[in-house]
């Protein structure tokens, strides 16, 4: 055979083998994408994450009983003829203007989700899922039900910690939300629209997003579908580890329309630790008001003002609070904060997240630009009262007094339908305020007081009021004379 014929035959054989190999690869690829076949090597398999996370996410049923509520209405000028105590008990003021009336509110029910974070029954959810609840029922993934109690809530971050009496629960593994990257796959796990044990998938669309809904915000934005009922549920990574607590959706219709938002675990961990230890969040303050530099620059431009900024990444300082950490560092109006603990903070939400992890008394290294010069200072963070003391939710026993609901004889004698009588006063805030034994408490900080539980709620609320930690009592003496006291709860 001639050499040219041999070379031609070899070329034909090679071409045939190449075509056969390409056909085989094409068939294999098509087979891999057929339902029921193996997942391609470059595809994302989310089944493991779903199986791992689902047992840790619970359904929370909220119940608020019907209550007597005081509302303001236009005053009846003849009301004082029928009310010998005038407006003291909230029934009338006389002489026109406004008066207070009591109405009965309807029973309220709601639902949301929660995430088991410890084997002994601690569950994280949103504050708006449990706030004001008289009863909370938790249903597990296996349909077991438990009654839950509220350990603590934080309206500023919209987080709450509740607990059920159970052991060996499937607690979720908590990951560091800082490790998330934009574009990374995540799952939203919860109970949306009454559909229990639902999983939706998406990607991280953005980080450190601020929406102006809560006091402290640095949301993880995702396009995983989040609907009503998902609140308090888990946002997990592809390992099934918790990276955020689903909090809200962005919608003009009330249902999912593209984006949802979750509170990162970096904020959640600090809030949970504080609620466990203190009953309230120990919130550190940097002592400034401000906005993203680029937002400030755009605002000035829109107003026709020429402005020069040293950088377009950072926080423009609009006001410095006297005595705060920023003032201590020498920060002034129009300075730009660029770093906290040597980590860049490019926008206000990132600064909020960095400070939200700290407690009053913690030291931070603050970097800022002042008169085009970069300055770095170590400062001590303070609380809203301007000091570094720990703030605890006050329990009833800190008042230094004993109480009981008034009895039938006292009701008839004083023509009352309710009241909490002070039976004993010892050293403490009540004695300092001059409240005597025998005084009957009818109200505290605009709340009706019918039981020790009512007073306990008022004390806890007042003790964490950063502006005015005072319990304002109104009531009546055994003689029938009305009385008012201001009980300081500052710790």
How is this structure best described in words?
- This protein is of the alpha+beta class and 491 residues long.
- It contains eleven helices and 26 strands.
- Strands 1-4-5-8-7-6 form a six-stranded antiparallel barrel. It has a six-stranded antiparallel β-barrel with strand order 9-10-11-14-13-12. Strands 15, 16, 17, 18, 19 and 20 form a six-stranded antiparallel sheet that branches.
- The longest helix has 30 residues, at 3-32.
- It is globular and about 75 Å long.
- The termini are far apart.
- The model is unreliable at 1-7, 9-39 and 80-95 (pLDDT under 50).
Characteristic key phrases:
491 residues, alpha+beta, 6-stranded antiparallel β-barrel, 11 helices, 22% helix, disordered N terminus
Question: In a nutshell, what does this entry contain?
Answer:
The chain has 491 residues and is an alpha+beta fold.
The total count of helices amounts to: 11
Extended strand count? 26
Order of strands across the main sheet: 1-4-5-8-7-6
Distance between the termini: 106 Å
Helicity, in percent?
A: 10-25%
Q: Which structural class is indicated by helix and strand composition?
A: alpha+beta
State the low-pLDDT regions, or none: 1-7, 9-39, 80-95
Residue fraction in strands: 25-35%
The Cα radius of gyration reads 31 Å
**What would the principal axes of the Cα set say about the shape?**
globular
The overall average pLDDT, rounded, is 83
Main β-sheet, in a few words?
A: 6 strands, antiparallel, barrel
